[in-house]
Amino acid sequence: MIHPFGRAAAVAVALFSCAGALAQFPSDPATPKVLAGTTGDQVQPKFARLADGTFYMSWYDSSTGYDAFVQRFDADGNALWAGGPVRAIDASFSSTEDYGLTVDAAGNAVVVTRRSSPALGIVAQAISPAGAVLWGANGVLLSTTTAVNSPKAGRAGDGAAVAGWTEGNRAKVLRLNANGSPSWPSASTLVDGTATTILADLQPGDGDSVIASAVRYTTFTGAKTLQAQKYAGNGTALWAAANVRVFTAGSLQFGNFPRFLPDGEGGAIFAWYTTGPLMARVQWVSPSGALRFGADGMATTTDTFHQATSPAMAYDPATRRVYVSWPSQVPNSSLYGFNAQAFNESGTMLWGPGGAVIQADETVYSITGATAAVVGGAPVFGWTRSTSFNQGTLLAQQVSPDGNPVWNQNLQVTAPGSRGRIECVTMGNAPLTWGLCFFEAGSSGADVNIAAQRINVDGTLGTPAACGDVNGDGRTDGFDLGLVLGAWGSSDPAYDLNDDGTVNGFDLGLLLGCWTP
Q: By C-alpha distance, which of 275, 323, 259, 270 is closest to 292?
């Protein structure tokens, strides 16, 4: 006999669980999980993960004049704020520019963006894990001049939020207190004589430091090079007074501002591509500011027959390997491919001088959108293969330590369509990690949404079924326990885990043995 309380509890759990199960990441590439999808365009997604496995996503929403919104999601992509996404700043812009999202030491989402009213400026706003706006209705104004662009958000090694922007022709960096007020008397400037420096990225350093990178040039049409500086918790520059010259020989593509990765020890790993020739390169700067890969870094390949552009990076601190992927093209042709390379900390190519061929040359409209993440101890690389305009399909492949494909075939992550700003990140905790790929889905002006897919280490999509997971939410936990106890003594096959005809202690033992940590 089922106890009345047990039946009621089971019904309540079942209703909750079914709702959760329907909201899992799908296994069908044609139906990605929509994270933001209201009237108008939701564009320029940013991601920030919290320690508990949940994550923040931010984006610009055109329906309100391209204001920045934030929502917190669980590991299945379910929105956690019942009231919907929170508007961080009422920017009132009719177009967009880059902005930043980070997480501070308290787990708050911190957005740094521009505003247009009452005057143009850089503002920061914090939103708590519960969805409360913390720094006032209008955020905290960080700049005092209207000549500001390229806002970025980062964090120091101790978790403090850091804002950055370009003011006039100088890159600026400013550490923030927990209440959003400036921690320094004034912003530090990444300067190189009279040259222009435009902020490119901010990442954590060691201790209380933060690392900033900037694109440097002397004339608008002149060579664009890459520099970096580390700032202590008090704003003092820690690297060479003239900054670390990450790349000086040649030029970046006009309008290209490469991001970089922190190495977790106080150093930084960079990837970019040059013009004349179009070639991807990599550099690793040590915690002291030394160039581990030599002056101007290492090329990702010795192949001069193909162009190598728009590289994506991933770093595995367990093996101290740097992984880089890039689209390749035979110049002045429609022959495109996709390649990858691995480097050790000495800058040695580990997958041969040409790198690993992930997608062999083929005649196609384009291959673009490289992305990379470490999943289950090995890199997963993604790229967009387009057969015609706005008909791009996101594909992915995992590569073994020796440079060979792991999955029998490339994984189709999305159906063909308009796909933009694709990024894949590592989720979960080692060794049970998985990849989250998010992207813009749709054409501008036609209701662009932010969508996402889950990539599993076995080369499948969607939230996988777990041992003892009777409600199908990818976990074996209290919800499953409630369902089994609610069906106690019955012969319901949904809860009879050992198929002996009765839901009893044997099934309970199996469920507990599969419990998700």
A: 270
